[in-house]
Amino acid sequence: MRTRPASIATIVIALGLALTSIGLARSMPYTVGGTGSTMTVAADLWAHGSAVSPALVALVVVGLLGAIAMRPTRGGRRASSWLAVLAAILVVVGLAEPAGRDAVLLGANDLVLSALVIAYEAALVALVLAAIGEVRTAVSPRHPVASDPDEPVRRRLALVAGPAAAA
To answer: Is 0.90 topped by the overall pTM?
Structure first.
């Protein structure tokens, strides 16, 4: 099982939820893609997030893709690639938000908030790198490829006609 992206996705979700609770408690509206109101911060969390947190729908998708990425199949590799794309988008959006950018640059007066935002952005970068690493690893085939292309035919002949027919 490939659990590295799923483990990092769990950390990203935990940090995102911590930032969501801080953004909700301090009534910090989003400012990217429009300007939110301080009166509707709780309603905007699902689709827009707050000034320092991602949208909750993005965290749900990160969790689903992380769970699928654990599978050692082509679908797991595809989920890892989409997880890398989504994490890269979340990094860009988090840094585009003025409050998030100020927290990363230590321009905010709150060191706890700055530390959480930096940890969240670093976890997203780690998720991008881990997901890319999982995409690049080859999936081992269930049945090894025979070096002789006629070997399966010879095996079937040996089962049907006996050992003399296969030679």
So the answer is: no
